[in-house]
């Protein structure tokens, strides 16, 4: 999937025109307001890309769980697997206390679809936020997110809670490979004249192996071994590493030094949300859940019940996630067109939602970006 995207940077005509079927999962809250933005952008792509789209609306989320007792219907999973070429996922509400029988549908969907990587580009636009151009590649299937917890009573009668942190060689190796491939793909864009803060591709492995020598140690060692054994492929990539606490410090002090960052699930989750502060808002940061044969674009923000229904949610994270989905499907040229239109909107700094200090509506921003396509 990545190599196809890299090839299409050089020759879009190598990808035969076709009709793509995209699953739309609005989920909860403002997901219902921003997912239509992704559809509108795809429908507005210039015809010279030779792409047409069919869409299917699918259900998942906490609101669905409250109605039916099911957060992720099997029908949704089967339609994605058997009928769709890609998908967009809006947002999901996450209750802060345990709700019997409920678990996150997006976490379950990642596992069922084999989407082992969460890819989050964080890039500043001239004059907005800190100078940053990085991609955080988060392992998506294990670590503390295996959700194997137990509550028991200590000998003194007090409660103790435990959680399993699982790191495997298999998952670490495939996420490391994904990170190296993304670094090469980004360099291919730069070689074609794409603007960037970086001149050399690099991958920074983030871990806490000085304390967690077995789990984080295995993550670190596996990626280093992959690099050492694949010099013919990755010789041009500079491999670095950073302890997670100093990674947080350096990411905020000098974000411009990081190109691709690869991390276990929990650290990747925290780093990617924190990195959004460097570019103004979670409302502009995209992500994609990626496996070997499928990609789901997913904005990084939550369901935002405080602004639900007011028409002021920022659609840019979803629009960029739509482009990211296309990129991982092998359609890098239309993805680049969408990125450029979004960057032009942000650079103009005129039509923006309240999270960016403006007073525009969601649909105003969508219309402006479509105009710039």
Automatic annotation (TrEMBL):
Keywords: Amino-acid biosynthesis, Lysine biosynthesis, Magnesium, Metal-binding, NAD, Oxidoreductase, Phosphoprotein. Pathway: Amino-acid biosynthesis; L-lysine biosynthesis via AAA pathway; L-alpha-aminoadipate from 2-oxoglutarate: step 4/5. It is an enzyme of class 1 (oxidoreductase). Its EC number is 1.1.1.87. Its cofactor is Mg(2+). Residues 21-369 form the Isopropylmalate dehydrogenase-like domain. SMART domains: Iso_dh. InterPro entries: IsoCit/isopropylmalate_DH_CS, IsoPropMal-DH-like_dom. Pfam families: Iso_dh. GO terms for biological process: isocitrate metabolic process; lysine biosynthetic process via aminoadipic acid; tricarboxylic acid cycle. One of its GO terms (molecular function) is isocitrate dehydrogenase (NAD+) activity. It catalyses: (2R,3S)-homoisocitrate + NAD(+) = 2-oxoadipate + CO2 + NADH. Signal peptide: none annotated. It comes from the Eukaryota. GO terms for cellular component: mitochondrion. Belongs to the isocitrate and isopropylmalate dehydrogenases family. This is homoisocitrate dehydrogenase. The lineage of its organism: Eukaryota, Fungi, Dikarya, Ascomycota, Saccharomycotina.
């Amino acid at each position: 999937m990545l190599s196809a995207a890299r090839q299409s940077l050089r020759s879009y005509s190598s990808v035969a025109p076709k009709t793509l079927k995209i699953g739309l999962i609005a989920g909860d809250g403002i997901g219902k307001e921003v997912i239509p933005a992704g559809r509108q952008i795809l429908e507005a792509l210039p015809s010279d890309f030779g792409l047409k789209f069919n869409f299917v609306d699918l259900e998942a989320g906490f609101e669905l769980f409250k109605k039916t007792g099911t957060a992720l219907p099997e029908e949704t999973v089967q339609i994605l697997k058997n009928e769709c070429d890609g998908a967009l996922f809006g947002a999901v509400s996450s209750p802060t206390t345990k709700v019997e029988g409920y678990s996150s549908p997006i976490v379950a969907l990642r596992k069922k679809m084999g989407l082992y990587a969460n890819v989050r580009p964080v890039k500043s636009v001239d004059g907005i936020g800190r100078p940053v151009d990085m991609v955080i590649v988060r392992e998506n299937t294990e670590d503390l997110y295996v959700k194997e917890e137990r509550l028991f009573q200590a000998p003194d009668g007090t409660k103790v809670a435990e959680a399993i942190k699982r790191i495997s060689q298999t998952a670490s190796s495939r996420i490391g490979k994904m990170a190296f491939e993304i670094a090469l793909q980004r360099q291919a864009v730069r070689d074609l004249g794409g603007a960037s803060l970086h001149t050399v591709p690099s991958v920074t492995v983030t871990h806490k192996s000085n304390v967690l020598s077995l789990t984080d140690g295995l993550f670190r060692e596996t990626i280093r071994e992959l690099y050492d054994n694949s010099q013919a492929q990755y010789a041009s990539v500079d491999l670095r590493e950073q302890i997670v606490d100093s990674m947080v410090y350096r990411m905020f002090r000098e974000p411009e030094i990081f190109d691709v960052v690869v991390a276990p699930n929990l650290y990747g989750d925290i780093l990617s949300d924190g990195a959004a502060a460097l570019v103004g808002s979670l409302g502009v940061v995209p992500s994609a859940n990626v496996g070997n044969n499928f990609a789901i674009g997913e904005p990084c923000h939550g369901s935002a019940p405080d602004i639900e229904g007011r028409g002021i949610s920022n659609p840019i994270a979803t629009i960029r996630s739509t482009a990211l989905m296309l990129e991982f499907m092998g359609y890098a040229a239309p993805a680049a067109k969408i990125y450029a239109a979004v960057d032009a909107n942000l650079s103009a700094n005129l039509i923006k939602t309240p999270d960016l200090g403006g007073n525009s509506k969601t649909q105003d921003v969508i219309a402006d970006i479509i105009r710039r396509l």
